[in-house]
# Entry
Amino acid sequence: MSNEEIQKNQEKFNHITEADIKYEAEKGLSEDLIRKISAEKDEPEWMLKKRLQAYRHFEKRPMPEWGPDLSDLDFDEITPFMVADAEQSDSWEEVPEEIKDTFDQLGIPEAEKEALAGVGAQYESEVVYQNMKEQWEEKGVIFCDMDKAVQEHEELVKDYFMNKCVPPQDNKFAALHGALWSGGSFVYVPEGVEVEIPVQAYFRMNSKGMGQFEHTLIIAEKNSTVHYIEGCSAPQFTRNNLHSGCVEVFVGEDAHVQYSTVQNWSKNTYNLNTKRAKVQENGTMEWVSGSMGSKVTMLYPSSHLNGEGARANHISIAYAGEDQNIDTGAKVIHNAPNTKSTIESKSISQDNGRTNYRGLVRVSEGASGSKTSIECDALMFDDEATSDTEPYIELKEDDVEVAHEATVGKIGDEEIHYMMSRGIEEEDAKEMIVRGFIEPIAKELPLEYAVELNRLIQLEMEGSLG
# Structure
């Protein structure tokens, strides 16, 4: 890829449009603000009550003292709710031109035509476009935004939303999310239905100082299959942005859910998420994550294996360049016999960037016959880069199999010299090494996302190697 092509690829993420805004909340957090958000959405009383309970818990919880430094995150400078002047549509042509231009730049409508069963596009705090192909709707699959789900599938949402998987009291940012959530995706797959091609949601923050709090709820009934993909981006601003989403996944007996993420938040964004799945008997949960952007990321997808024979696979790649702190990992709780988990984590750091794998595997009492395998590999470009591995394994059963392997290393001069002796430029040699390093992760993504992952890393590396 030429320098000109790389620059054009970067421009699609930094592209900013001036869309008309219908409603913009004042900066900062308050109970009055939460009431206004709920009223704006015409929510039922139970949801307002849930929001207020979450906010009170948020106020009581201290900021986390472990992990990356969050001292520059000022909630009083965050605009937590902003709505563009656009009604949600299932026709791309009806989306306002200035908003459509943003998603056109990102290739969303083209991807839908070629490779997706359904697409949702969120701009600031609410979804502006949502569409599901008829062949899946006819089988009873529901794919809509969370605000519509509250109105049209109220009993189902009331039963599952931040009750059985991620309660607001789980952590400070889960509580913040419970108070301010807006937009996101609701996916329901009936028993026995296989959604053979992925559904996708794309989340875009387009304003400085913005906070985005989308909620994703996926319910896959017995013997069903679905692959959900999310993409995230924001242009670069001088004020900090905050992304604090929440994902809840329910994997039924013999069901299979894959959740793939490629995020490229700008380097003024704090990316602080809670993602968790509950997996029943012989169900399979797969998390595939690529974390390229943000100023700070704290992301630890979690799988609770609650039924015998349940499985979880966690695959992640993290990249930290100058002034980035990417703290990622995985949590797996084995709560039933003969459950199995694999964790594969790869990270790349350069300049003064920092990557960290932070993981927890717990085998609970009664989960005999469980197996877990953890592999963490870190690649550093220079002496200023930092990478750490912090695994924690807790075993309350004797009859288990545990394997853990971690490697940390720098790109070797001998490898570079060998490739240069074969006529390959130094920068191209380093890019080839990195592509080989991340290949096991990229191959788990759909083709267009694997290409995007490679492009994003190449963008980050461009101009900083040598």
User: Anything to note?
Assistant: The chain has twelve helices and 25 strands. The first strand starts at residue 21 and ends at 24. The chain has a mean pLDDT of 80.
